[in-house]
Design goal:
By secondary structure, the protein is α/β, with parallel strands linked by helices. The chain has 10 helices and 15 strands. The strands form 4 sheets. A 5-stranded mixed beta sheet has the order 1-8-6-4-5, sandwiched between helices. The protein has a 5-stranded mixed beta sheet with strand order 9-15-14-10-11, sandwiched between helices. Strand 10 (about 255-260), helix 8 and strand 11 form a beta-alpha-beta unit. Helix 7 packs across helix 8 (about 265-280). The radius of gyration is 19 Å and the shape is globular.
Length: about 350
């Protein structure tokens, strides 16, 4: 028999601060995205970025360490038998850039380095790393839930960070995926995404130490394109259907969705198609947070799942900051007080990856 899985504790770091600070700022419809000229770049001279305790991307050495140490500040005591799953997608970018510009190198050059550093820093023993594009942390939480449910581990810390670098900035500028303004998730006039610094840590356990249970998880891949999202939304829809089946809940019972909501034309349209195909005329209230904190890439899902858990605890659905004229009538524009029992958080990434997690309050 499959064991239950609970989120024992979580924290995040965004341009708005830690979990409680980010939560309160989003409720007040605030954004940490600052529009300015950040780089010498003919492709996109100015855009909005959400940065954590820095004004420019070259101000902090070993920035991944800095983000994680801040994220683990005042964290719940972590059991010594905890397995670690590090999630991220491009943590070697900082090493490559500093090598190119002949500046001081960071103390890590890969996800494996960062995983080993976390294990040593916390006095733990073993772990693994996952890189699955912008769905990385949602995939990591899905895998952790499966391993705990199967009885292979009692506690798993899913942890990771991603942050703005020249490498990432130039890449998204070349793809013409960023906006010169501040991103507007699900808005009819959206023009692209905004990047942001972010980190998260979630402790998942078989022992019930909180009211938040992970009752469904799923990973799919539509293999549509190396960077472009599916135009049909079938892969994401399949992922959501699988979490519904695992949880035993019906479509009409789902109360809220925390969407990927990058603010790009194609991603947001794909998500709306996926939601409409599953829920028809009764799509749950849906929100996205990237208009407040930017897109933190591999860390995005972990941040959003932590905030989704807080939605359940606070009986509140967050507003979609940056959205003024929504493409769908179920997008939340203001905070909504509602007795919540469940919420779905979903993410999609390059290569056609989709991942969904269903949380319930118990």
């Amino acid at each position: 028999m499959k064991r239950e899985v609970f989120i024992s504790y979580s924290n995040i770091i965004t341009g708005l601060g830690n979990l409680d600070e980010t939560w309160q700022a989003i409720l007040e419809r605030k954004s940490s995205i600052l529009k300015k000229k950040h780089f010498e770049n003919s492709l996109l001279e100015s855009t909005g970025l959400s940065l954590y305790k820095r004004n420019f991307v070259e101000e902090k050495e070993n920035f991944a360490h800095f983000l994680i140490i801040n994220c683990l500040n005042n964290f719940l005591e972590i059991p010594k038998n905890t397995y670690v799953i590090w999630t991220g997608i491009k943590n070697s970018a900082e090493f490559i850039e500093k090598s190119l510009y002949k500046t001081r190198l960071p103390q890590y050059s890969s996800e494996r380095d960062l995983l080993n550093w976390v294990i040593d820093y916390l006095g733990l023993k073993e772990g693994m790393e996952i890189s699955a594009a912008c769905a990385s942390s949602t995939v990591g939480i899905s895998l952790a839930s499966q391993l705990i449910a199967e009885g292979k581990f009692d506690n798993i810390l899913v942890i990771g960070c991603d942050f703005v670098t020249k490498f990432v900035y130039y890449g998204f500028a070349a793809l013409k995926a960023m906006t010169e303004e501040i991103c507007k998730p699900f808005d009819k006039k959206r023009k692209g995404l905004s990047l942001g610094d972010g980190a998260f840590a979630l402790l998942l356990s078989s022992e019930k130490r909180s009211k938040i249970r992970v009752s469904g998880w799923s990973i799919t891949n539509d293999a549509n394109h190396i960077t472009g999202p599916s135009r049909t939304g079938d892969g994401l829809a399949d992922s959501i259907k699988k979490v519904l089946k695992m949880s035993g809940l019906k479509e009409k019972e789902i109360q809220a969705i925390c969407a990927h909501g990058t603010g790009t034309l194609y991603n947001d349209a794909m998500e709306i198609k996926a939601f409409n195909s599953i829920f028809s005329e009764n799509v749950p209230i849906t929100f996205g947070i990237k208009g407040s904190i930017g897109h933190s890439l591999g860390a995005a899902g972990g941040i959003e799942i932590a905030l989704s858990a807080k939605c359940l605890l606070e009986d509140t659905i967050l507003p979609t900051v940056g959205c003024d004229d929504p493409e769908a009538n179920y997008i939340s524009l203001v905070p909504i007080n509602k007795k919540l029992k469940n919420i779905i958080s979903c993410n999609s990434g390059f290569g056609g990856i989709n991942a969904s997690v269903l949380l319930e309050k118990c």
